[in-house]
Amino acid sequence: MADPEARIWAEVQSYLRSHYPGLRRQWFEELELLGIDAGIARVRAQTSVHRDYLHRQCLDAFGEAIRAVTGRLLTVRFLGPEDDPEAPYDHGLSAFRGLPMPEAIVLNPDNSFEHFIVGPSNRMAHAAAMAVADQPGRSYNPLFIHGGVGLGKTHLLQAICLRLGDRHPGASIHYTSCDGFITQYFESVQAGQMAAFRDKFRGVDVLVIDDIHFLAKRGRSQEEFFHTYNSVMQSGRQIIVSSDAPPEVIPHLEERLISRFRQGMVAGIDPPDLETRVAILKGKARMRGIPLPDDAAFHVAACIDSNIRELEGAITSLQLAAGVDGVAVDLALARRVLGETPAARAESPTIHTVIAAVTEFYGVRLTDLQSKRRHRSVTMPRQVCMYLARTHTRHSLEEIGGHFGGRDHTTVMHAIRAVDSRRKSDPTFDQQVVSLDERLRHPIRPG
Q1: Is residue 90 assigned to a domain?
Q2: 3-class secondary structure for 216-231?
Q3: Which domain CATH number covers 213?
Q4: Residue 87, in any domain of the structure
Q5: 57 and 136 share a domain?
Q6: How many CA within 13 A on the CB side of residue 306?
Q7: Do both 186 and 281 map to the same domain?
Q8: Residue 398 vs residues 101, 387, 389, 392: alpha-carbon distances, Å
Q9: Residue 380 in contact with residue 338, Cβ under 8 Å?
Q10: 120 with 265, same domain?
Q11: Per-residue b/e over 280-301, b at no fewer than 16 CB within 10 Å?
Q12: 220 and 188: one domain?
C-alpha cells in the first residue's frame, strides 16, 4: 500500500471507530486496502465469510467513511483471500456456494465456537453443537436447540456452519430462517417450480433452519417440511433447527414432527448466570477492542440478567458514552449509564415486561409479534410494544427492533409515529395505551 493510501486507510479506520463504534470489530484492523482505482477502493478480507459479512452488513459504513476521508465519490469492493481484484464484481457472494441469495442468512464471523462463552446454562447445547460440527449426520441427528430470545441459539447454529465450511469446504450447507423456508415454498408453488425447491432443500448435506416454531399453524408448510425432513434424514445427512420452545410446547405443531424432532438431541439454553454474563461481557468488549475492568463488568452483569442481546446493548451504550465523554470505560461510567445499583434498575420495566403486558392485553403471542404477519390484529400490538419499549426502557431503536424478528430501526420509528398519530385520533386506542403505560409504571405485586 502506498503511503498516501496507508494514511487514507488509517483515517477510514479512525472514522469507523468514532462514527460506528457498535459496528466496528477488532478484526477490521486485519483488513487490507489493496488500492484505489477507477473510483473503487478494493479491500481484502481474511476469509470469504468476513468478505460476505462486510458486503452485506458494513458496505454503507465503509463507503461513507472513505468518501468522508478522501472527499471523492468512491465505492468500496470487498474481496476474499482468493478473489481476483480485476474480476467483475459478484454482488451475490455468499459464505458457502451452496447458499442461495438473497434468502440465505449472512454468517457473522463473531458467531464462532471460539467466541461462544460456555456456562451451566448452555453446556449441553454447546457440546451437542460441537459434536455435530465434527461429525455431521452421525452425531445427534436431528439437533434441536431451544431457548428464549437472545440466549445464543443463532450463535450456535452459525458456529456449526462456520466450522463445517472451514473443515468441509465442498459440503453443501443451506442455512435459512423458517420464514425463508415458508416464503420460498409459497413462491415456488406459485411459480410452478416445486422441483427446483425440493432439489434445493432435499439435496443438501446439512440443512439448518432458525426459528422453526414459525411453522406453527402452517399446515401446507408443515407438510412440505415433513417430507423435506424425511428425505434429508433418510439420506444420512444432517438437520439442525432452533426454536424458542421445546418441540412438544410449540402450539399447533403436528405430532409427527414433534416425534421426529425428539428422535435426535433436544438441548435447551437457559439465561446465563452471573459469572457467565461477566465472561460474555468481557468477550464482547474484547471483540470491539474495548478494555473492560472486572468491577465494571460485574456491575453490568448484575444490572442485566435477561439475555445476551441486552448485554451486548449495554456494551454499545458504554462504548458510545465513553466516546462522547472522552473517557475510558470504568465502574463509574457503568454506574452512570446503567444506574447506581442493580436493585434500583430492577424496578424499571424490562423489554420482556413490556412484551408480556402487551401480549396478555391483546391476546397475541410473542411468535406472532416476531413474525412477518401484517394483519391488523398483529401489527397494532407489535407497534404498541415497540412504542412502550422505547418509552420505558433504555434500549436503542436497533435493539428494540431486534426483539421483534430482527426489524431495523426505521420500522421501530414508523411504529412510534403510527402509535402517536393514532392516539390523537382514536380515544379508545389512546385509553388502551394509557392503561398499558400505567400497568408498566405501577405493576401489581403479589401479597
Answers
A1: no
A2: CCCHHHHHHHHHHHHH
A3: 3.40.50.300
A4: no
A5: no
A6: 18
A7: no
A8: 24, 13, 12, 15
A9: no
A10: yes
A11: bbbbbbebbebebeeebbbbbb
A12: yes
Which cell goes with 407?
A: 426489524
Name which of 112, 120, 15, 20 is nearest 65 in CA terms. Answer: 15
Query: What contacts 87, CB < 8 A, 6 or more positions away?
Result: none
Asked if residues 197 and 231 have their Cβ atoms less than 8 Å apart, the reply is no
- How much of the chain, in percent, has pLDDT values that exceed 90? 47
Q: Residue 285 corresponds to which cell in the numbers above?
A: 468488549
pLDDT at 8: 93
Between CA 347 and CA 46 the distance in angstroms is 45
Helical packing angle, 308-325 and 274-287, nearest 10°: 50
Q: What is the pLDDT of residues 301-357, one digit of tens each?
A: 888 877 888 898 889 888 888 887 889 999 989 988 887 655 444 456 788 888 888
Which cell numbers hold the place of 391? 418509552
Shared-domain flag, residues 364 and 429: yes
What SS3 state is found at 17?
A: helix
* Phi-psi map region of 238: left, alpha, beta (phi>0 left; psi -120 to 50 alpha): beta
Q: 3-state DSSP call for residue 35?
A: strand
Q: Is 137 left (phi over 0), alpha (psi -120 to 50) or beta?
A: left
Residue 315 amino acid letter: I
pLDDT value of position 163: 95
* Rounded Cα gap, residues 43 and 214, in angstroms: 38
CB-based burial label for 208 (10 Å; 0-12, 13-18, 19+): buried
Which candidate, 312, 273, 315, places its Cα nearest to that of 296?
315
Strands 238-243 and 40-44: unpaired
pLDDT at residue 87 tops 60: yes
Q: What is the pLDDT of residue 100?
A: 36
Radius of gyration of the chain (CA): 23
Q: What is the CATH number of the domain that holds 410?
A: 1.10.1750.10
Residue 447 inside a domain? The answer is no
Q: How far is CA 373 from the centre of its chain?
A: 19
Same domain (yes/no): 46, 162 = no
User: CA of 70: how far to CAs of 6, 19, 43, 144, in Å?
Assistant: 12, 16, 16, 49
Domain at 306, CATH number: 1.10.8.60
pTM for the whole structure: 0.70
Q: What's the length of the chain? A: 447
Number of domains in the chain: 4
What share of residues in the chain are helix, strand, coil (percent, to 5)? 55, 10, 35
Closest CA to 150 of 271, 23, 314: 271
